[in-house]
Amino acid sequence: MQLSELIDSLKLDPLAYATGWKKNHSGKVVGYMCSYAPEEIIWAFGALPFRLMGTKSVIDRADAHLQAYCCSLVRGSLEDALTGRLDFLDGMVFPHTCDSIQRLSDIWRINVKNRFHADVVLPAKLDSDSASDYLVATFRKLITDLENRLGRSITEKMLGDAADLYNEIRSHLNTLYVLRQAHPRLINGSDFHAIVQASMWMDRNDFCKILSDIVGFFTEQATDASFQGKRIVLSGGVCNVPDIYPAIEAAGAAVVGEDVCTGDRFFQGSIRMQGDMVENIARRYIDRIVCPAKHHGLFTRGNHLIQKVRETRADGVIFLFLKFCDPHGFDYPYVKEMLDQEGIPSMVFEIEDRSLSEGQFKTRCEAFIEML
Ligand code: SF4
Ligand code: SF4
């Protein structure tokens, strides 16, 4: 297959894909909304981990259960569940992260019935002495819950195979990021976004094979490192708006790094393969850079972003937040202050309901990039 065909094969209609996968594999599909959900464990059970990204439809029924000032990811996902668009899901895994996801879990349990439902109560402080033991116990409980509800048990080898596959996927994604840093025009932002999204929806074995071929193509093509435009790091939570990439590219810049939980935070780090696999899987989540819904030192996120800007030789940072996202909103002032102290320019943009106010983003983006 040609490179373009491979990339096109990853541009999915996620709901139709999951429905088809379930039918063809007679398998279970388990939804999740946050990159703290241990996908490896779900996959080890032979179930498809499926990340919810909000809805494409108008939000109506969800508003009877959630305040209008919840983020569109939470409101949109509930809307899809209440209207039956997520009926292919056999269950949901809700990690204890931001308040909105925690409250959504309660509402989901009561209103979306007859499905497997697991709260994964992660420690809030990931840098304490007991965090690791606590997380291991939490993941062991999740395994028992999944065993009871999915009617099958898993062995250490099955966990090891799943961890191995995820290590390979994350390593390939990381290679793509490194290639993009060195050759910002090599992979356009929308294609890159489609690849990362498919990693959260597709059969992971199929995805890994396609991804490996894509990495091979891009590695061969990566010869010209000249790029005169401005280099941007994106920072925020879930990014589900592919239209931002063409807008940034049209303004003469390129995204060279993504400190977001549908990017960097999703594939950072690898799982150790020797020893107890639950402990190894938990260790990766402890060591991974935290999102603002967790705590790991007072300045960790600010320092991480500064380091990312330095590593990628970025000229500036665009903060991209979903409207009403409290964790990112509360973290923003201190992170911005740290960037200011380092002389790193930044701009912030809020998105609502998946739709980018394209004109507004374009104008703000052009002005920001021009001033870099
Ligand atoms: S920002 Fe944190 S809590 Fe929110 S979806 Fe991402 S990992 Fe989960
Ligand atoms: S972290 Fe923010 S964007 Fe993610 S679910 Fe929570 S409130 Fe929504």
Task: Give a written overview of the molecule.
With 372 residues, the chain is an alpha/beta fold. It has a domain at 12-155: Rossmann fold. It is 51% helix and 12% strand. Helix 5 links the parallel strand 3 and strand 4. Helix 7 (156-182) runs parallel beside helix 9. The longest helix is centred in the middle third of the chain and has 27 residues, at 156-182. The chain is globular. The chain starts with a helix and ends with a helix. Bound molecules: iron/sulfur cluster (2 copies). The site of one iron/sulfur cluster has 10 residues, from loops.
Question: Helices, strands, pairings?
Answer:
Layout: H1 3-8, H2 14-25, E1 29-32, H3 39-44, E2 48-51, H4 72-82, E3 91-95, H5 99-111, E4 116-120, H6 131-150, H7 156-182, H8 189-198, H9 204-221, E5 230-236, H10 244-250, E6 253-259, H11 264-267, H12 277-287, H13 300-312, E7 316-322, H14 326-341, E8 346-351, H15 358-371
Helix pairs in contact: 4-5, 6-12, 7-9, 13-14
The chain binds iron/sulfur cluster (2 copies).
The site of one iron/sulfur cluster has 10 residues, from loops.
